[in-house]
Amino acid sequence: MFAALIKWLSILLVLFLCGIAIVLIGARFADGPIAMVAGGPFTSGTPYVGEEPDWSFLKDAREVEFQLLSPERSRTTWILEHDGKIYIPSGYMQTSWGRLWKQWPLEAEKNGRAILRADGMLYDRQLVRISSGKQLPHIVSEMMRKYRPLIGSIPPEVSNEQAIELGVREVEAGSLWLFEMAPPKSL
User: Fold this and answer.
1) Among residues 187, 91, 102, 92, which one has the least CA distance to residue 143?
2) What is the pLDDT of residues 114-133, one digit of tens each?
3) Which of 80, 83, 97, 106 would be a feasible disulfide site paired with 87, CB 3.0-4.6 Å?
């Protein structure tokens, strides 16, 4: 009886793991990410042509999609808009889980060429890591305004000012990475 139970549990585990593998591999061929699963290169959207956009339309957008050009994989991410510029965060960078799961920030540091997909438009961008500077508290403040309820590591009794200071320290220490989605470099 016990051996039969172990056999069926093993079969279910193998089927479950095969299902996860199929989703992860299949997502690489999708037009963009599937929720938290990295997807393939964008195959839909209208390329944006014109002056640098007014990014204020992203001020309250919860998530956007972006694709690195090398390697060609896309992801869903939070987006921050401050002072006419846009930024994307990447947390957990000094954790075992983060090092295993989050390869895109390391890839972006090597070659930050990217495409942002927002509201059906495709914007050529250059990811530039921000790890210090006078704008940092303002960017972190915007992150706290939008996402603090989703950041489980900050207890509710911590004031906004303390949360911003903590966020700035995390960026400076390398635990939280921020990238400006800057205009593409001139060729």
Assistant:
1) 91
2) 999 999 999 999 999 999 99
3) 80
